[in-house]
Amino acid sequence: MAVDAATPRLDEQVCFALHAASRAVTALYRPLLDDLGLTYPQYLVMLDLWEHGDRGVKELGKALSLDSGTLSPLLKRLEKAGLVRRERRGDDERSVRVTLTGDGDRLRDKAVPLPGLVGDAMGLDAAQLDELRVTLNRLTDSVTRYRTGLGS
Fold first, then answer.
1. At what angle do helices 14-34 and 114-122 cross, to 10 degrees?
2. Residue 49 CB: number of other CB atoms within 10 A?
3. Is the domain covering 38-109 a CATH 1.10.10.10 domain?
4. HTH marR-type domain location, by residue (predicted)?
């Protein structure tokens, strides 16, 4: 079957390049995170808690772009593993606060080398990694604004 010039090519699509890169990076993290007993989404939760300390579930979900249906099971598994504690606030029963346990805080030391290892595997220097991160954040913001009707 002949393909005409107007047919979109898979290898020319930004969406496919992003998808393939995301899968490759996640696969790179998998064995490193297995050593920590974490999945990639759990690692993201832990990164946020290590950076910010205890957080409300809504705050955590917003930071990670995760809805409560996705975040709640992650937190439940992290709590079962003894890495976090979820507590309802006394002044607002609807609000749940997530706190690192001692084991969760100590796990940070094991996780410290991961970004460097992954960065090395990406074959980009520090400036290129920073530029890539800035570009991806800008792309995410632009697409989010467009989807919510704020873009042009």
1. 140
2. 22
3. yes
4. 11-141
**Residues facing residue 48 across a β-bridge:** none
Segment 43-69 shows an average pLDDT of 94
User: Helix, strand, or coil here: 124?
Assistant: coil
Q: Please compute, for residue 51, the number of CA atoms within 13 A of its CA located in the half-sphere on the CB side.
A: 9
* Cα distances (angstroms) measured from residue 4 to each of 1, 8, 9, 13: 10, 9, 10, 16
Q: pLDDT at position 49, please? A: 97
Structure confidence by residue, pLDDT tens digits, 75-101: 999 999 999 999 987 676 678 999 999
Alpha carbon of residue 25 to chain centroid: 11
Q: Which two tokens stand for residue 138?
A: 């800008």
Q: Which token pair is 21?
A: 């890169």
C-alpha to C-alpha distance for 25 and 127, rounded to whole angstroms: 18
Q: How far apart are CA 28 and CA 55, in angstroms?
A: 28
Mean of the pLDDT values across residues 41-65? 95
Coil, strand or helix at 118: helix
Taking the domains of the chain in order of start, what are their residue ranges?
38-109
